[in-house]
Amino acid sequence: MPKFKPHTGTGKRVKVTGKGKIVREQAGKRHLLEGKSSHVTRRMTGTVVIAEADLKRVKKLLGR
C-alpha cells in the first residue's frame, strides 16, 4: 500500500484556521512595490479565505 503524501508546497502556502477555514496570503506584495501605490500595497496585507472554486482542489492537496 503506498504512503499518502500531501503536497508540501501547498502546505507552506496555505494555513487551516481553528474552525477549518483555509486562508492564504494576498498575492502581489513581493516585488515591484515602488510602482504600486500605498493604497494597493496596504490592501494586500493580511490573509484572505481561499475562494470557493479552489477549495476542493486545495483540500485534496492538503489531504483533508
Strand content: 15-25%
Q: How many helices in DSSP terms? A: 3
Care to count the β-strands?
3
Sequence stretches where pLDDT stays below 50 over 5 or more residues: none
Average residue-wise pLDDT: 96
Rounded to the nearest angstrom, the radius of gyration is 15 Å
Structure description:
The protein is 31% helix and 16% strand. The chain starts with 7 loop residues before the first helix and ends with a helix. Strand 1 and strand 2 form a beta hairpin. It has helices spanning 8-13, 38-43, 55-62; strands spanning 14-16, 22-25, 47-49. The chain contains 3 helices and 3 strands, in the order H-E-E-H-E-H. The model has no long low-confidence stretch (mean pLDDT 96). With 64 residues, it is an alpha+beta fold. Strands 1-2-3 form a 3-stranded antiparallel sheet.
Compact overview of the structure:
With 64 residues, the chain is α+β, with helices and mostly antiparallel strands. Helices cover 31% and strands 16% of the residues.
What's the structural blueprint in terms of helices and strands?
Elements: H1 8-13, E1 14-16, E2 22-25, H2 38-43, E3 47-49, H3 55-62
Antiparallel strand pairs: 1-2, 2-3
